Amino acid sequence: EEKIGQKVGNVKIFDIKDFAKVAKRDKIDVAVIAVPAQFAQSVLEKVTEAGIKAVMNFAPTPLRVECDVKLKTVDLTISLESLSYFLAHSNNANGKNLKPNSTERRNAL
Hints:
Elements: E1 7-8, E2 11-12, H1 19-25, E3 30-33, H2 37-49, E4 54-57, E5 70-73, H3 76-88, E6 92-93, E7 96-97, H4 102-108
C-alpha cells in the first residue's frame, strides 16, 4: 500500500525526493533514519544534502558522514538487552539503583 501523501496523526508522509524542500520550509534541523539497512546510506546522503547537521540512525548498519554532521547510531539490540537486564534485576528502576528512603534506612539499622 502506498503511504506517501497519507497522514499518521498530524504528520504527513512525504516522498524522500521532497525532503530538501520540506526541511527548508519546516526549518527541520534534526533527522531520524529508521529504514532497512540497504537504504540507510542513501537516505542519509539526501538528508545531509538538504542541510541537516544532526541525525539519529536506527538502521542496523554503520553510516559514513561528513565531519560537520553529528551522527548518533542507536543499536536496538543492545538497547533491548539493556532493558531486559534491568527488568530481570528488580532492585533497579530506570536503569539506576535507587537509594533507600529514610524510613527504609531506619528499618535496616
